[in-house]
Amino acid sequence: MANLKGADLLVNVLVDWGVKTVYGLPGDSIDTTVDALRRQKDQVKFIQVRHEEVAALAAAAEAKYTGKLGVCLSIGGPGAIHLLNGLYDAKMDHVPVLALLGQVTSKSLNEGYFQEVNTAKLFDDVAVFNRSISSVDNLAEVVDQAVRSAYENKGVAVLTIPDDIPDQKLKTAYKSSAKAFALSKPEIDSNQLDQAAELIQQAVKPIVLLGVGAKESAAGAAIQQFVEQNKIPFIETLPAKGTVADDHPNSLGNVGKLGTKPAYEAMKSADLLVLLGTNYPYRPYLPNKAQAKCIQVDIKAENLGKRYSVDVAIQGDVAKVITQLNQKGQLRSDDKFLDACQKNMSNWNKWMQAKRKLDTAPASPESLVAYIDETAPDNMVYSIDVGTSTSWSARYLHVKKDQQFAISAWLGTMGCGLPGAIAAQVAYPDRQVLTLNGDGAFAMVMQDFVTAVKYKLPIICVVLNNQKLAFIEYEQQSAGQLNYQIDLADLDYAKFAEACGGIGFNVKSNAEFKQALDKAYKVTDKPVLINAYVQDNAPLPGKIVMDEAKGYMKFGQEYLENYWKIPELPPLKDIMRQFF
Ligand SMILES: Cc1ncc(C[n+]2csc(CCOP(=O)(O)OP(=O)(O)O)c2C)c(N)n1
Ligand SMILES: [Mg+2]
Hints:
Domain Thiamine pyrophosphate enzyme TPP-binding: 385-531
Distance between the termini: 75 Å
Number of helices: 23
Bound molecules: thiamine diphosphate, magnesium ion
Strand order of the largest sheet: 3-2-4-5-7-6
Domain Thiamine pyrophosphate enzyme central: 193-325
Largest sheet: 6 strands, parallel
GO molecular function: catalytic activity; magnesium ion binding; thiamine pyrophosphate binding
CATH topology of the largest domain: Rossmann fold
Radius of gyration: 25 Å
Structural class: alpha/beta
CATH superfamily of the largest domain: Thiamin diphosphate (ThDP)-binding fold, Pyr/PP domains
Helix content: 40-55%
Protein name: Pyruvate oxidase
Number of domains: 3
Keywords: Pyruvate, Thiamine pyrophosphate
Strand content: 15-25%
């Protein structure tokens, strides 16, 4: 092969690594790279977005869903700046993303030329690999290295490319390292496994908390066997939702502010905490200090013992560790704690059931999300935005074995829902994709609804329209502040969807929502937006922890009971008396 442009070599490397999609917006300093993508459009799809933030959020979401590298590109300067938010989402949720940034030509570099931004400095904090290309001779090598680094470090690789360099030709081809690359998994120390087994045998009230590390290592089946044969209830962090199906009888739902009361209480009663692939940061929701022994499994040594004092710390792949533990057979058969937790969970579910039937006008968000849950196809892919939509999905979506669920977990950026849905539908053309958004969050990226129209992506976009930043309404109250600046002006999002060339429904009741959703499931060639007018029900925490309780004092006990309708469910410690 001779006389290939640097840009073509760059695209070849991406193809070698199995990149199928690049998200971005062409222009100025990235045009040469885009031109090479045009030449190889049969190999790599270029999805043109309307705002670069959406490109980066989509690339991050693609990586979350598929476990593969997400790729986005932009011009230097303003376009690159727009990417930042999505790249931070990838960084903080530890997924591999490559960002290709244009830059002014080499001869103008450092002059303070039009749109010249110091990208090396700007992306320093977000990137695990951050280089500027200075010669066509090693362009392909550096791209290859960037991809390896993104995979190895589970983060963002950034390449700044002065636009004249990929335009130059090279006489020699480059062979990428894609085929030879494999991440090694540490061997597991059998002594540590024995110690872990011993702690499990001794435990009276063990609990498993599983996180995204378990999801990534596809440990669902092994964990399911583990909790079943050892009679252990389990809790999932929100980004790991669905790793073991939510409707598994040992599941206590999610933990934390958006979690369930049974999960909180089980944590507070446990005498053994088994942390599997999680770096869960909210200590008030973990067992109290010195209350429980702890086994932690994590692929990253730096996470071991970070959040809770640990007795057995195993560095390793969760699936591998749990499979080896399972090979030891049943370690404990006492099911008293599990029974008590299940009873507690069944009380909770009954209460949740009552809320999901609420037939109010405007509709209650609980009932709408419950209807989505009931009707979702077995292969549904959910993309959930930030706000009360996150809470409702945590509570009312029961993610099944073959369904997928993604959120912006650690950055928690509003506006991640629609880009995630676009990425999911591009990656999985034959699956149903649904995104759940608040009106505030959707408005941050709504211009890209037209992208879904352009690429004929039949995503279902549900906007929970409460004309408010409801999550912040709740947050202000729990901090003891008076509500201020949380109202949002209304907008006819259905009309907007129609104006984009999609389908839009305005719905005000459960019945109207059901009709609209049923119709939406049948559409195959364009996105459907359901603008659902809902009550601004603020999300009810499973348990109000101390800091929040202090804030609420300002509003009084009566307010708490009436407005939040805190359930009068018996606490786990009372239920346990029946079993112990
Ligand atoms: C980019 C960004 N800005 C601000 C926030 C803080 N924030 C979290 S939730 C929220 C309100 C969301 O409002 P909306 O989308 O209407 O959903 P609702 O809570 O009303 O259901 C805000 C402002 C954020 N997480 N991300
Ligand atoms: Mg809102």
